[in-house]
TrEMBL record:
Domain Fatty acid hydroxylase intervals: 88-220
Transmembrane segments: 7-28
Keywords: Lipid metabolism, Membrane, Oxidoreductase, Transmembrane, Transmembrane helix
Protein name: Sterol desaturase family protein
Cited InterPro entries: Fatty_acid_hydroxylase (IPR006694), Sterol_desaturase/TMEM195 (IPR051689)
Annotated region described as Disordered, given as residue ranges: 273-299
Length: 299
C-alpha cells in the first residue's frame, strides 16, 4: 500500500489560520457590498459544524467504498506505480473525474440532495468551504474507472484529498481576478464565485476542482461579470445542521409521496433538481380558455 500523507488532516491548522485572517480582514476592511458580504456568526458556525460532521460520516461511508475499490483493484491486471512522475498524472486524472462527478451532482436530483449542502449558505467565505455533506456515498461510482485502470485506492484517496485542499482557498471574496494565464487554466475564487451563485446565467457552471480547463472544453464555463448572489434558488433559511444535511432528501420523499405515477417518481429522483412532470393533456388548453375568458370579462 502506498505510504501517502493525509493532506486534509495536515491542512486543518492552515484552514483555521486562513479563516481567522479572512475574518480579521473583513472586520478591518469591510467589503463595499455591505451586509451581503463577509461573515455571519450563525452561518459560519453551521458551516464548521457541517465540516466536522462530514469527517465522522465519511469514516462510516469509507467502509463499504474501500471494500468496493479494493475488490475492483484486485480484479484488474493493471497497476499504476506511485512515483514522482505518476502522481501528477493521477492528480490530473482524478481532477477530470471530479469534474464529471461534480457536474453529475448538479444535474441529477438524488445526487444534488448530497451536494446541495455545500451551496446552502448565502455567504461566500472560507468557512463555506467547510460546509460539506454528510452523505458522500453518492460520489464513489465516478472514480471506479480510475481504480480499474490500476490506481491504488490509497493513491486515489490522496488525490481526492489534495483536490479538496486546493479548493479551500477559492472560497473567498477577498481575492479578485488573478493573472489571465492562471485564470485560463486553474480554478480561482472568481470562477468559483460564479459556481456558488444563484442567478440564472451562473447556474450549473464552473464545475472544475483544481483545473477550469474541463469547463472550457465541455461548455460549462462562464466568467464572472456581475456580482454573484449566493445560496439556492429557494433558500432553506435554517442554521440547523441536521436540516441542512437532509432537507433535499426530505423534499424528494414528499414529492415521491405526491407523485401520480412511477414515471413521475423516477423523474423526481433522477432528473434535474428543478424538474416538473409535464402538464396533463388538455390542461394547457383549459388554462388558455380560462385566460381568454378572464380577458374577455376585463375587456
Amino acid at each position: 500500500m502506498p505510504n501517502l500523507p493525509d493532506v486534509v488532516l495536515w491542512s486543518i491548522p492552515a484552514f483555521v489560520l486562513l479563516a481567522v485572517v479572512e475574518m480579521v480582514s473583513v472586520r478591518i476592511h469591510p467589503a463595499a457590498e455591505g451586509a451581503a458580504a463577509g461573515y455571519e456568526a450563525k452561518d459560519a458556525v453551521t458551516s464548521v459544524s457541517m465540516g466536522l460532521g462530514s469527517l465522522g460520516f465519511d469514516l462510516l461511508w469509507k467502509i463499504p467504498i474501500v471494500a468496493v475499490y479494493t475488490a475492483v483493484y484486485e480484479l484488474t491486471p493493471l497497476r499504476v506505480p506511485v512515483l514522482w512522475w505518476t502522481v501528477p498524472l493521477m492528480l490530473l486524472a482524478q481532477d477530470f473525474f471530479y469534474y464529471w462527478s461534480h457536474r453529475g451532482h448538479h444535474v441529477i436530483r438524488i445526487l444534488w440532495a448530497c451536494h446541495v449542502v455545500h451551496h446552502s449558505s448565502q455567504k461566500f467565505n472560507l468557512t463555506t468551504a467547510l460546509r460539506q455533506p454528510w452523505t458522500t456515498w453518492t460520489v464513489w461510482p465516478f472514480y471506479v474507472p480510475l481504480v480499474a485502470l490500476g490506481v491504488h485506492p490509497a493513491a486515489l484517496a490522496f488525490c481526492s484529498s489534495a483536490n479538496l485542499v486546493y479548493q479551500f482557498w477559492i472560497h473567498t471574496e477577498r481575492i479578485g481576478k488573478l493573472h489571465r494565464a492562471f485564470e485560463f487554466v486553474f480554478n480561482t475564487p472568481s470562477h468559483h464565485r460564479v459556481h456558488h451563485a444563484s442567478q440564472g446565467g451562473y447556474l450549473d457552471r464552473n464545475f472544475g476542482g483544481i483545473l477550469i480547463v474541463w469547463d472550457r472544453l465541455f461548455g460549462s464555463f462562464v466568467p464572472e461579470t456581475e456580482r454573484p448572489v449566493y445560496g439556492l434558488t429557494k433558500n432553506i433559511d435554517t442554521y440547523n445542521p441536521l436540516r441542512v444535511a437532509t432537507h433535499e432528501y426530505a423534499a424528494i420523499a414528499r414529492d415521491l409521496r405526491a407523485a401520480g405515477s412511477w414515471r413521475e417518481r423516477a423523474g423526481r429522483v433522477f432528473r434535474g433538481p428543478g424538474w416538473q412532470p409535464p402538464a396533463p393533456v388538455g390542461a394547457e388548453d383549459a388554462g388558455d380558455a380560462v385566460s381568454e375568458t378572464a380577458a374577455g370579462t376585463v375587456a
